[in-house]
Amino acid sequence: MEKHIWVRADLPGSYEERKSIVTASLEVGLTDIIIREEDEPLRRLGRFNALVISGEDVLLGGHTVARMVTVRGPEDLDKAYALKGAERVIISSRDWKVIPLENLIAAFQGSGTQLMAESHGVEEARLFLETMEVGADGVVVTAEPERLSEIAALRSRPPSVELVPLPVTRIEPLTVGDRVCVDTCSIMGPGEGLLVGSQSSCLFLISSESVGSEYVACRPFRVNAGAVHAYVLTADGRTKYLSEVKGGDELLAVTPEGASRTVVVGRAKIERRPLLLVEVDDGERRFSTIVQNAETIRLVTEDGPVSVSELVPGHRVMVRLEEGGRHFGHSIDETITER
C-alpha cells in the first residue's frame, strides 16, 4: 500500500529556503506540501496540493483534511483517540520515546481514519512507516531538500511477488483478435514485465520487449501483454482488464526473481492481431493466457525470456498463483472457477 508523505515547507525562516523545499519536493514527485498562507507565489512552481496549517487543522482549499494533535505524554493520547472517525489525524511529539506509536496504530486500524505521524528526517520517517509491519498511514516530514529523494522512496514498499514455474502443456495458434500493447514510462530489464492471465488465479510473467531481434529493435518500455479480456496486476494489488488500461494507470512490474515496482502507463494500444493460446498445468488445474502470435512476445522461463515462436510443451514458465477469486479487481475469499 502506498503511504502518504506530506512535506513541511512552512518552517524555515527565509522565503528562499521554503522555496527550495517546495522545488525539491516537486522534483522527486512529492506533491502534498505544507506552505505558509502568505507564500502564494510558491504555488506557481508546479501543480501540487498546497496545504496550510490553521491552529490544529490542516486545510486544503479551505477545507479541513487533517487534525493535528501534539502529544507530550500519555495523558494527551485520549485527545488523539477521540478523533477516530475524522478523515485524518496527525500525531506530533517532541519525544517519541514516551509515545507508544504501535498502540496508536492498533487503535486506529479499521477506524476509517488515516493516522499520520510528524517526523524529522529519513530514519524517523522510515521507522514510523514500518512500525508493526503495517506502519502509520503516512508521515508529515521535515527534511533537508537534498534528502527528499530518500523520503520519496518510502512512499511504497513494493511487495515481493512469489513466482513459481509451471510446465507448458499446450500451445495453440488462434484466429485474429484484439490485443493490448502497454507502453510504460519506465525502462525495464530483460525478463522484467507484467503479470497477465486469463484467470486471476494464475498470472503469467510477460516480458518487456527488452531483447532486440533481427526484425525489430528492443523497446524496453513496452509489454505486448495479451488479449483484451485478460487480467493484469496493478500497483495496488488489484487486477483490471487489459482493455481498461489507459495512460496514467499504475501497474506492477515484476522481475523473474519476484522483485516489483510501480510503473506508469504512457499509453495502451489495442490492435487486431493473430493470437496464440498458452496453457500450463499445476497437476490439479489448467491455466492459460492468450497473447499475440509474434516472435517479439516472450514469456519468462526459469532460464530467462523465451519467444512464443520458440516456446514448446515442457518449458517451465514463471507464474503467480492465487487462491480464491476476484470481484471488481479485489481479491475475495470465494470459490470461483474460470476456464
The amount of beta strand, in percent, is 35-45%
Report the CATH architecture of the largest domain. Answer: Beta Complex
Q: Count of DSSP E strands?
A: 22
CATH class of the largest domain: Mainly Beta
CATH topology category name of the largest domain: Endonuclease - Pi-scei, Chain A, domain 1
Number of helices: 5
Secondary structure category = mainly beta
In angstroms, what is the radius of gyration? Answer: 24 Å
Strand order of the largest sheet: 1-2-3-4-5-6-7-8
Largest sheet: 8 strands, mixed, barrel
Helix content: 10-25%
Shape: elongated
Q: First CA to last CA: what distance?
A: 30 Å
User: Which sequence of SSEs, written as H and E, runs from N to C?
Assistant: EHEEEEHEHEHEHEEEEEEEEEEEEEE
Identify low-pLDDT runs. 326-332
Detailed description of the structure:
- The protein is mainly β and 339 residues long.
- The protein folds into 2 domains: 4-152, FMN-linked oxidoreductases (TIM Barrel), CATH 3.20.20; 164-332, Endonuclease - Pi-scei, Chain A, domain 1 (Beta Complex).
- It has helices at residues 15-27, 77-81, 101-108, 122-130, 148-152, and strands at residues 4-8, 32-34, 49-54, 57-60, 63-70, 88-92, 114-120, 138-142, 164-184, 193-199, 202-207, 222-227, 231-233, 239-241, 250-254, 260-281, 286-292, 298-301, 304-307, 316-321, 325-327, 330-332.
- It starts with a strand and ends in a 7-residue tail after the last strand.
